[in-house]
Structures are given as structure tokens and as C-alpha cells.
Amino acid sequence: MLHRAVFQSKLGDMILLSDEEALLGLWFADQKFFGANYQLGQADDVQNIPLKLTLRWLNDYFAGLKPDPFAIPIRPEVTAFRKAVYHELQKVPYGETTTYGELSDKLQAKQAVKTNKARAVGGAVGHNPITLIVPCHRVIGSDGSLTGYAGGIERKKALLQLERQN
Question: CA 132 to CA 128: how far, in whole Å?
Fold first, then answer.
């Protein structure tokens, strides 16, 4: 059974999706690839434990309290490679940024990947189904530029600014 909730953030409504055990998706309502793998109309509005934890986490995040991204049980329905990318992304500290190349290097060092896969990392980051908790907005270009974000570049700027202020 799928469950959903809506969180009203200062940057727009966010949709949360879970099953009984874990968060499956967290998207801004207008972002690209929003809910792509799910029939969201079949989810009910019952707030279970994963949704309650995530709603509390989001309140803390937008209040600048730097919540732990590993405090939320997540289960993105993606490949093993993308799961490894998302796990590395969760380690990027609040208020800091990384690049696609740096993520690829870290995965390579852990032998999760044998060769430099910055493009594949970019694909994983661009299709992240659990925004903020898997902080894909913290990934920038190797030249420091703000590259694409499924929630929009302006929203990415606002998220990074929020984190820098706290």
C-alpha cells in the first residue's frame, strides 16, 4: 500500500510517497520526473511512520536545523549504481557542495565503480526521486557553476542559500 502527504514549503508544495517501511519519493510538485515510477492516484492520504518522520525532517530542514539525512528510511526504486550514488550524496554536509567528478571519484575509490563515470553520476543525480534527503541540489559543475536541477535552477539557488545562512 502506498501513502502520500503534501508538505507546503516556502519553495513550493512537496509530495511525499512511502510504503509501510520507507520513503519512496520526495518531489517538488512541479519538478521534472515527479512520481515517474508510481501511480500516485492509488496512494492514500494516511500518514504512516515514514511520512511523519519525513514531515518532521522537512520542518527542521526549512528551519535551518540541519537534520540528519540518514534519519529517514529511504528505498528509492533505482539501480544498484544509483543507490550507491545517492548514498554518497547523503554524505555531502549541509551547506557544502560537491561535483559530479568528485562523486565519481569517491565511488571509484570504494570500488562501487571501476572507471570514472561522471556522466552516469550526472544521470543518477538528475533523476533523484528523493530530493533534499538525497541532496542533489548540492552538486555543482566542476567550474563551480550551478548545473541543472529537476526542481529548477532558481530553487537550487534558494536551497543552497538557505543552507549557507545556517
Answer: 10
The residues, ordered by sequence, that sit 6+ positions from 37 with a Cβ below 8 Å of its Cβ are 25, 77, 129
Q: What secondary structure letter does DSSP report for 44?
A: B
Q: Does domain 80-165 have CATH number 1.10.10.10?
A: yes
Contact 23, 133 (CB under 8 A): yes
pLDDT digits (tens, 9 = 90+) for 20-47: 999 999 999 988 767 767 777 788 898 8
Q: Closest by alpha carbon to 76, among 141, 28, 27, 118? A: 27
Q: What pTM value is reported for the model?
A: 0.92
Is 19 noted as a catalytic residue in this protein? no
Q: Which of 14, 17, 136, 162 is catalytic?
A: 136
Domain 3-71: give its CATH code: 3.30.160.70
